[in-house]
Amino acid sequence: MIFHKILINWYLGNKRDLPWRKINDPYRIWLSEIMLQQTRIEQGLPYYLAFTEAFPTVFDLANASQDEVLKLWQGLGYYSRARNLHETAKLVSEELGGKFPDNYKDLLKLKGIGDYTASAIASICYNEVTPVVDGNVYRVLARYFDVDTPINSSAGQKEFKALAAELIDEENPAIYNQAIMDFGALQCKPQNPLCETCPLSNSCLALKNNKISLLPVKLKKAKIKKRYFNYLVFLSEENETILEQRLGKGIWEGLYQFPLLESKSLIDTEVLVTDSHYFSVGADHQQKISLYNETPIVHKLSHQHIYTRFWIVEKGELNGDTIPLSKIEEYPVPVLIANFINEFELSDY
């Protein structure tokens, strides 16, 4: 039986019951695809449901503030996806009358939409014959055809895209693309794939050559950078604190955080007071500084590990812009700060 027919037959009996598969709305397909980039469905599904409830149409998302979008996205990671999502919603709403482009080429022009997402939307919504290539597809093709070209190399991306284009079912591109993605997620899993019950096992070259665990091949990542974050959690007698919005193009752009002192290593109270501009020169008898966590919380990102400690600073009065502690949970913050707020129960102060 032909490769694509085997996959489609498998899919019809094993496909996952997902809310965006019950409709043919480009807005919701786009939402799901953006949210599930580098995210497991189990993690992304609650966010999808929350977003579609809060923003049922692209116009609703476009009219929301960036803070509202980031707050709802909080904890999902890769926040540039949320910012791009918001920008694209505004463009589609204001310049395209709320209608997404109906073809791969024009979808690629939208911010935050790359080859995979454009292919997914074009094939699923408009039945365009354009293959999707995500992590699941890379794995299925690399194993089935025993391809050891690194999937995160430019040569690998071209090779697998061309191979996927050869295999796609031109009569049913929408079903085929969803079939091969589900097959990679459920049958040809990264760890402990179900080779014994696989409908492709008789012709799988990696299985024949005992290379299942070796494929797909990925080039090694660059060395992980270590960073040391010291957050200053100011608490005033009026139950207020200070939050600042992260600017620039670094991690967590647009999110809020406590005043931050980044250091080259772990520091003590003396260095904290000396190096941070938040403390006045000389002794401040109205402040009490205590370290909340001696052992740093290690927050791991793809390219850096952040060693975080929270310093509680109790002061009679706070200078600058402050917010009531009772409203702190209204602000979008990185997940490590959200966890601290919940653990310390700041909003109850």
UniProtKB/TrEMBL annotation:
Binds 1 [4Fe-4S] cluster. Residues 35-186 form the HhH-GPD domain. Keywords: 4Fe-4S, DNA damage, DNA repair, Glycosidase, Hydrolase, Iron, Iron-sulfur, Metal-binding. CDD domains: ENDO3c (cd00056), NUDIX_DNA_Glycosylase_C-MutY (cd03431). Signal peptide: none annotated. It catalyses: Hydrolyzes free adenine bases from 7,8-dihydro-8-oxoguanine:adenine mismatched double-stranded DNA, leaving an apurinic site. It comes from the Bacteria. Its EC number is 3.2.2.31. It is an enzyme of class 3 (hydrolase). It holds the Pfam family EndIII_4Fe-2S. PROSITE patterns: ENDONUCLEASE_III_1 (PS00764). Its cofactor is [4Fe-4S] cluster. One of its GO terms (molecular function) is adenine/guanine mispair binding. GO terms for biological process: base-excision repair; mismatch repair. InterPro entries: A/G_AdeGlyc_MutY, DNA_glycosylase, Endonuclease3_FeS-loop_motif, Endouclease-III_FeS-bd_BS, HhH-GPD_domain, HhH_base_excis_C, HhH_motif, MIG/MutY. Adenine glycosylase active on G-A mispairs. MutY also corrects error-prone DNA synthesis past GO lesions which are due to the oxidatively damaged form of guanine: 7,8-dihydro-8-oxoguanine (8-oxo-dGTP). Belongs to the Nth/MutY family. PANTHER family: ADENINE DNA GLYCOSYLASE. This is Adenine DNA glycosylase. It comes from Gillisia mitskevichiae.
